[in-house]
């Protein structure tokens, strides 16, 4: 008796990121097709990235760890020259290891600081907070579940401790040159004179080393890229055949850009159910997914200069693969 239950009504409603819908709608209609790497990081994508950080070909994480480990004392000296309190504001909740290395050193040295991890993902933040408060029960911890710039806006109202902003892991490499300038200008607007920004920059080096980092023998970079199609299948009810797409990587030593593509291995048509969209692919047609930019010292100095910062510290690993650079407002 009563109304028959409609199949649709039984589907659990999962919250789909509206930005992902917009990205797929517009990106797959462009020529060439594109989908931004900022949608790589669903639960599975974050797991794959964690694994990438441990593969031998992906030198970035190891190199930055070496930089921070060898330079942690000099960094603390720069952050708190006269033992004044500071706020360590980390943009992106951090992968743990590298940040923990700093937290550990600063705690041992009894530095007076508050750790303020900022992330738009509640999951990433919750995990980090649980972990950090367990390892350092006495650490002052003030997590922010927010957009980077909102979080920085609020900080200025809350305290007059010196701010030290961490932007590690070569995340800056995903910006276009204009976006990078915009990003540091926005930081400049929100910081006070004397505040600091520590950024991890991957440096230009032998092109084969960089190419291998994004074309690893374990195939994790491929999985990382293909996972975006898996996510779209799940979140937007699409029917990408993952076995009919491959991963293709280029590195140009002239531009310093590593670029990732997904390539259609046959002529095919994909349905995106939730968007009522049909997407044709030719054999060999690409979807551009990511740019990971590599810098020269000169470019980094120019970036500081153009956005009103001065260069207060330059730290690299023994091979000079990676630089952690301190800008002062
Ligand atoms: C997290 C953006 C720094 O570009 O090196 C790793 C992401 N992409 N392998 C990078 C990534 C492919 C990574 N960042």
TL;DR of this structure?
Helix content is about 40%, strand content about 25%. With about 325 residues, it is an alpha/beta fold.
Question: How does this model look, in words?
Answer:
There is one protein chain. Helix content is 39%, strand content 24%. The chain has helices at 7-10, 18-27, 43-52, 60-79, 97-108, 122-135, 148-158, 177-190, 207-213, 220-235, 297-306; strands at 33-34, 86-91, 113-119, 140-141, 144-145, 162-167, 196-202, 245-252, 257-264, 268-272, 277-281, 286-293, 310-316, 322-328. Strands 2, 3, 4, 5, 6, 7, 13 and 14 form an 8-stranded mixed β-sheet that branches. A 4-stranded mixed β-sheet has the order 1-12-9-8. Strands 10-11 form a two-stranded antiparallel ribbon. Mean pLDDT is 92; it is low at 1-13.
Q: What's the mean pLDDT score?
A: 92
SSE sequence, one letter per element: HHEHHEHEHEEHEHEHHEEEEEHEE
- Termini separation comes to 71 Å
Number of helices: 11
Small ligands present: N,N,N-trimethyl-histidine
Low-confidence stretches: 1-13
Query: What global shape is seen?
Result: globular
Binned strand content: 15-25%
Helix share of residues?
A: 25-40%
Quick one: how many beta strands?
Answer: 14
**What structural class do helix, strand and pairing data support?**
alpha/beta
Q: Major sheet, described briefly?
A: 8 strands, mixed
Round the Cα radius of gyration to an integer and report it: 22 Å
Keywords: Methyltransferase, Transferase
Domain Histidine-specific methyltransferase SAM-dependent: 21-328
Organism: Spirosoma utsteinense
Protein name: Dimethylhistidine N-methyltransferase
